UniProtKB/TrEMBL annotation:
Any one Gene Ontology molecular-function term assigned to this protein's record: ATP hydrolysis activity
Annotated signal sequence range: none
Keywords linked to the UniProt accession: ATP-binding, Cell inner membrane, Cell membrane, Membrane, Nucleotide-binding, Transport
Protein name, as recorded: Amino acid/amide ABC transporter ATP-binding protein 1 (HAAT family)
Organism this protein belongs to: Paucimonas lemoignei (Pseudomonas lemoignei)
Length: 256
Protein backbone atom coordinates (compact mmCIF):
# COMPACT_ATOMS: atom_id res chain seq x y z
CA UNK A 1 0.00 0.00 0.00
CA UNK A 2 1.32 3.39 -0.95
CA UNK A 3 1.52 5.97 1.81
CA UNK A 4 -0.65 8.28 -0.29
CA UNK A 5 -4.28 7.19 -0.16
CA UNK A 6 -5.81 10.06 -2.10
CA UNK A 7 -4.24 12.29 -4.67
CA UNK A 8 -5.61 14.96 -6.95
CA UNK A 9 -3.71 16.13 -10.00
CA UNK A 10 -4.44 19.59 -11.32
CA UNK A 11 -8.03 19.26 -10.17
CA UNK A 12 -10.11 22.09 -11.57
CA UNK A 13 -13.78 23.01 -11.50
CA UNK A 14 -15.25 25.92 -13.37
CA UNK A 15 -18.80 27.20 -13.06
CA UNK A 16 -19.66 29.26 -16.13
CA UNK A 17 -16.19 30.74 -16.38
CA UNK A 18 -15.72 31.11 -12.62
CA UNK A 19 -12.96 28.85 -11.31
CA UNK A 20 -14.08 27.48 -7.94
CA UNK A 21 -11.28 24.88 -7.72
CA UNK A 22 -8.09 25.81 -9.47
CA UNK A 23 -5.34 23.34 -10.31
CA UNK A 24 -5.39 21.62 -6.94
CA UNK A 25 -2.74 18.99 -6.22
CA UNK A 26 -3.68 17.38 -2.97
CA UNK A 27 -1.95 14.42 -1.37
CA UNK A 28 -3.61 12.79 1.59
CA UNK A 29 -1.40 10.40 3.48
CA UNK A 30 -2.76 7.10 4.75
CA UNK A 31 -3.53 7.24 8.47
CA UNK A 32 -3.61 11.01 8.64
CA UNK A 33 -6.30 13.37 9.78
CA UNK A 34 -5.94 15.95 7.03
CA UNK A 35 -7.75 19.27 7.19
CA UNK A 36 -8.84 21.42 4.32
CA UNK A 37 -9.22 24.95 5.55
CA UNK A 38 -9.68 28.36 3.99
CA UNK A 39 -11.90 31.42 4.04
CA UNK A 40 -15.56 31.28 3.01
CA UNK A 41 -15.95 30.58 -0.67
CA UNK A 42 -12.41 29.19 -1.00
CA UNK A 43 -13.67 26.05 -2.73
CA UNK A 44 -13.56 23.49 0.09
CA UNK A 45 -17.04 22.07 -0.37
CA UNK A 46 -16.64 22.08 -4.14
CA UNK A 47 -13.46 20.05 -3.66
CA UNK A 48 -15.38 17.54 -1.53
CA UNK A 49 -18.12 17.38 -4.15
CA UNK A 50 -15.50 16.57 -6.77
CA UNK A 51 -13.93 13.88 -4.59
CA UNK A 52 -17.28 12.17 -4.00
CA UNK A 53 -18.38 12.64 -7.63
CA UNK A 54 -21.30 14.91 -6.84
CA UNK A 55 -19.62 17.20 -9.34
CA UNK A 56 -17.65 16.37 -12.45
CA UNK A 57 -14.29 18.12 -12.67
CA UNK A 58 -13.65 20.44 -15.59
CA UNK A 59 -10.15 18.98 -15.75
CA UNK A 60 -7.67 17.07 -13.65
CA UNK A 61 -7.55 13.67 -12.04
CA UNK A 62 -8.43 11.97 -8.77
CA UNK A 63 -6.48 8.91 -7.66
CA UNK A 64 -7.53 6.66 -4.79
CA UNK A 65 -4.92 4.11 -3.73
CA UNK A 66 -3.14 4.88 -6.97
CA UNK A 67 -6.18 4.07 -9.10
CA UNK A 68 -7.74 6.72 -11.31
CA UNK A 69 -11.29 7.22 -10.01
CA UNK A 70 -11.99 10.44 -11.91
CA UNK A 71 -14.67 8.83 -14.05
CA UNK A 72 -16.29 6.73 -11.33
CA UNK A 73 -19.86 7.24 -10.13
CA UNK A 74 -20.68 8.23 -6.52
CA UNK A 75 -21.82 4.71 -5.60
CA UNK A 76 -18.61 3.19 -7.00
CA UNK A 77 -16.53 5.55 -4.91
CA UNK A 78 -18.45 4.61 -1.79
CA UNK A 79 -18.03 0.91 -2.50
CA UNK A 80 -14.29 1.42 -2.71
CA UNK A 81 -14.30 2.91 0.77
CA UNK A 82 -14.49 6.66 0.25
CA UNK A 83 -17.37 7.67 2.48
CA UNK A 84 -18.62 11.18 3.09
CA UNK A 85 -20.39 11.48 6.39
CA UNK A 86 -23.66 13.16 5.51
CA UNK A 87 -24.04 11.03 2.39
CA UNK A 88 -25.39 8.07 4.30
CA UNK A 89 -26.27 9.74 7.55
CA UNK A 90 -29.76 10.91 6.64
CA UNK A 91 -31.07 9.58 9.92
CA UNK A 92 -34.72 8.82 10.58
CA UNK A 93 -35.63 11.08 13.50
CA UNK A 94 -38.46 8.94 14.83
CA UNK A 95 -36.58 5.66 14.88
CA UNK A 96 -34.25 4.72 17.70
CA UNK A 97 -30.52 5.18 17.53
CA UNK A 98 -30.00 1.42 17.18
CA UNK A 99 -32.59 1.17 14.41
CA UNK A 100 -30.86 3.93 12.49
CA UNK A 101 -27.47 2.24 12.63
CA UNK A 102 -29.05 -1.05 11.60
CA UNK A 103 -30.72 0.53 8.60
CA UNK A 104 -27.34 1.90 7.52
CA UNK A 105 -25.85 -1.58 7.77
CA UNK A 106 -28.76 -3.12 5.87
CA UNK A 107 -28.31 -0.64 3.09
CA UNK A 108 -24.69 -1.59 2.82
CA UNK A 109 -25.37 -5.31 2.71
CA UNK A 110 -28.06 -4.97 0.07
CA UNK A 111 -31.54 -6.24 0.50
CA UNK A 112 -32.25 -9.59 -1.02
CA UNK A 113 -35.58 -10.92 0.21
CA UNK A 114 -34.14 -14.17 1.53
CA UNK A 115 -31.56 -12.29 3.46
CA UNK A 116 -34.30 -10.96 5.72
CA UNK A 117 -35.69 -14.36 6.52
CA UNK A 118 -32.67 -15.37 8.48
CA UNK A 119 -32.94 -14.55 12.13
CA UNK A 120 -29.28 -15.24 12.49
CA UNK A 121 -28.49 -12.50 10.00
CA UNK A 122 -30.67 -10.06 11.91
CA UNK A 123 -28.90 -10.91 15.15
CA UNK A 124 -25.54 -10.39 13.50
CA UNK A 125 -26.75 -7.03 12.32
CA UNK A 126 -27.80 -6.11 15.84
CA UNK A 127 -24.45 -7.17 17.23
CA UNK A 128 -22.58 -5.12 14.66
CA UNK A 129 -24.83 -2.10 15.27
CA UNK A 130 -24.23 -2.31 19.03
CA UNK A 131 -20.50 -2.57 18.38
CA UNK A 132 -20.61 0.61 16.32
CA UNK A 133 -22.62 2.41 18.99
CA UNK A 134 -20.04 1.38 21.57
CA UNK A 135 -17.29 2.74 19.36
CA UNK A 136 -18.89 6.19 19.32
CA UNK A 137 -19.99 6.15 22.96
CA UNK A 138 -23.70 5.76 22.30
CA UNK A 139 -24.36 2.41 23.99
CA UNK A 140 -26.61 3.94 26.61
CA UNK A 141 -28.57 5.80 23.90
CA UNK A 142 -29.32 2.69 21.80
CA UNK A 143 -33.05 2.79 22.52
CA UNK A 144 -33.39 6.58 22.53
CA UNK A 145 -35.56 7.99 19.78
CA UNK A 146 -33.12 9.85 17.56
CA UNK A 147 -34.98 13.16 17.67
CA UNK A 148 -34.44 13.26 21.45
CA UNK A 149 -30.64 12.97 21.18
CA UNK A 150 -28.53 15.96 22.17
CA UNK A 151 -26.95 17.66 19.13
CA UNK A 152 -23.40 16.38 19.61
CA UNK A 153 -24.71 12.84 20.06
CA UNK A 154 -26.54 13.11 16.74
CA UNK A 155 -23.23 13.78 15.07
CA UNK A 156 -21.84 10.74 16.89
CA UNK A 157 -24.70 8.71 15.43
CA UNK A 158 -23.84 9.96 11.94
CA UNK A 159 -20.28 8.87 12.52
CA UNK A 160 -21.49 5.44 13.63
CA UNK A 161 -23.52 4.98 10.45
CA UNK A 162 -20.53 6.17 8.44
CA UNK A 163 -18.29 3.62 10.16
CA UNK A 164 -20.86 0.97 9.26
CA UNK A 165 -19.97 1.58 5.61
CA UNK A 166 -16.41 0.53 6.45
CA UNK A 167 -14.68 3.63 5.21
CA UNK A 168 -11.03 3.57 4.32
CA UNK A 169 -11.18 7.30 3.79
CA UNK A 170 -13.77 9.36 5.65
CA UNK A 171 -14.70 12.80 4.38
CA UNK A 172 -16.18 15.13 6.99
CA UNK A 173 -17.48 18.54 5.94
CA UNK A 174 -17.49 20.83 8.98
CA UNK A 175 -18.19 18.15 11.59
CA UNK A 176 -18.38 20.63 14.47
CA UNK A 177 -20.40 23.29 12.70
CA UNK A 178 -22.99 25.01 14.84
CA UNK A 179 -21.91 23.27 18.03
CA UNK A 180 -21.35 24.58 21.49
CA UNK A 181 -18.05 24.13 23.30
CA UNK A 182 -18.90 20.81 24.94
CA UNK A 183 -20.20 19.18 21.77
CA UNK A 184 -17.17 20.41 19.83
CA UNK A 185 -14.98 18.69 22.39
CA UNK A 186 -17.03 15.48 22.26
CA UNK A 187 -16.98 15.29 18.46
CA UNK A 188 -13.30 16.22 18.22
CA UNK A 189 -12.36 13.43 20.61
CA UNK A 190 -14.57 11.07 18.67
CA UNK A 191 -12.95 11.92 15.33
CA UNK A 192 -9.55 11.34 16.88
CA UNK A 193 -10.70 7.99 18.22
CA UNK A 194 -12.27 6.68 15.02
CA UNK A 195 -9.31 7.83 12.95
CA UNK A 196 -7.32 4.84 14.22
CA UNK A 197 -6.72 2.55 11.26
CA UNK A 198 -8.48 4.96 8.91
CA UNK A 199 -7.79 8.18 7.05
CA UNK A 200 -9.83 11.32 7.51
CA UNK A 201 -10.08 14.36 5.29
CA UNK A 202 -12.10 17.11 6.90
CA UNK A 203 -13.20 20.64 6.19
CA UNK A 204 -13.14 22.51 9.47
CA UNK A 205 -13.43 26.15 10.43
CA UNK A 206 -12.70 25.72 14.12
CA UNK A 207 -8.96 26.25 14.47
CA UNK A 208 -8.70 24.68 17.90
CA UNK A 209 -10.13 21.49 16.40
CA UNK A 210 -7.67 21.69 13.50
CA UNK A 211 -4.67 22.39 15.72
CA UNK A 212 -5.76 19.74 18.19
CA UNK A 213 -6.16 16.69 15.99
CA UNK A 214 -4.98 17.29 12.41
CA UNK A 215 -1.68 15.89 11.16
CA UNK A 216 -1.62 17.98 8.03
CA UNK A 217 -3.42 21.05 6.77
CA UNK A 218 -4.01 22.32 3.27
CA UNK A 219 -5.10 25.93 3.03
CA UNK A 220 -7.28 26.85 0.09
CA UNK A 221 -7.78 30.38 -1.12
CA UNK A 222 -9.80 31.33 -4.18
CA UNK A 223 -9.81 27.73 -5.32
CA UNK A 224 -6.05 27.19 -5.12
CA UNK A 225 -3.77 25.72 -2.46
CA UNK A 226 -2.08 28.57 -0.66
CA UNK A 227 -0.05 26.63 1.88
CA UNK A 228 0.37 23.16 3.33
CA UNK A 229 1.96 21.69 6.39
CA UNK A 230 1.39 21.10 10.07
CA UNK A 231 -0.74 23.56 12.02
CA UNK A 232 2.40 25.11 13.48
CA UNK A 233 3.74 25.65 9.98
CA UNK A 234 0.68 27.04 8.25
CA UNK A 235 -0.47 29.21 11.15
CA UNK A 236 2.69 31.28 11.01
CA UNK A 237 2.75 31.50 7.23
CA UNK A 238 2.35 35.21 6.40
CA UNK A 239 0.20 34.49 3.33
CA UNK A 240 -2.14 32.36 5.40
CA UNK A 241 -2.36 35.04 8.08
CA UNK A 242 -3.22 37.56 5.40
CA UNK A 243 -5.86 35.28 3.88
CA UNK A 244 -7.41 35.04 7.31
CA UNK A 245 -7.37 38.78 7.93
CA UNK A 246 -10.35 40.00 9.85
CA UNK A 247 -12.30 37.92 12.31
CA UNK A 248 -10.60 34.69 11.38
CA UNK A 249 -7.13 36.05 12.12
CA UNK A 250 -8.14 36.16 15.75
CA UNK A 251 -9.37 32.61 15.37
CA UNK A 252 -6.02 31.45 14.02
CA UNK A 253 -4.13 32.99 16.90
CA UNK A 254 -6.72 32.01 19.45
CA UNK A 255 -5.94 28.39 18.80
CA UNK A 256 -2.44 28.60 20.20
N1 LIG B 1 -23.00 25.28 -8.37
C1 LIG B 1 -22.31 26.41 -8.36
N2 LIG B 1 -22.46 27.32 -9.35
C2 LIG B 1 -21.77 28.48 -9.35
N3 LIG B 1 -20.87 28.81 -8.42
C3 LIG B 1 -20.66 27.94 -7.41
C4 LIG B 1 -21.38 26.71 -7.32
N4 LIG B 1 -20.96 26.05 -6.20
C5 LIG B 1 -20.05 26.84 -5.62
N5 LIG B 1 -19.86 27.98 -6.34
C6 LIG B 1 -18.94 29.07 -6.02
O1 LIG B 1 -17.65 28.51 -5.87
C7 LIG B 1 -16.95 29.14 -4.80
C8 LIG B 1 -16.49 28.09 -3.81
O2 LIG B 1 -17.63 27.61 -3.09
P1 LIG B 1 -17.52 26.50 -1.97
O3 LIG B 1 -18.89 26.24 -1.50
O4 LIG B 1 -16.74 25.36 -2.49
O5 LIG B 1 -16.68 27.26 -0.86
P2 LIG B 1 -16.31 26.79 0.61
O6 LIG B 1 -14.84 26.91 0.75
O7 LIG B 1 -16.93 25.49 0.93
O8 LIG B 1 -16.98 27.95 1.47
P3 LIG B 1 -17.66 27.90 2.94
O9 LIG B 1 -16.53 28.03 3.90
O10 LIG B 1 -18.52 29.12 2.95
O11 LIG B 1 -18.42 26.64 3.07
C9 LIG B 1 -17.88 30.17 -4.23
O12 LIG B 1 -17.54 31.42 -4.79
C10 LIG B 1 -19.23 29.72 -4.68
O13 LIG B 1 -20.10 30.81 -4.84
MG1 LIG C 1 -18.33 24.82 2.34
Amino acid sequence: MTPVILETKNLTKEFKGFTAVNDVNLKVQRGHIHALIGPNGAGKTTCFNLLTKFLIPTSGQILFNGKDITADKPAQIARQGVIRSFQISAVFPHLTVLQNVRIGLQRKLGTSFHFWKSEQTLNQLNDRAMQLLAEVGLTEFADTVTVDLPYGRKRALEIATTLGMEPELMLLDEPTQGMGHEDVHLVTELIKKVSAGRTILMVEHNMSVVSGICDKISVLQRGAILAEGTYAEVSKNPQVMEAYMGTSAAELQGAH
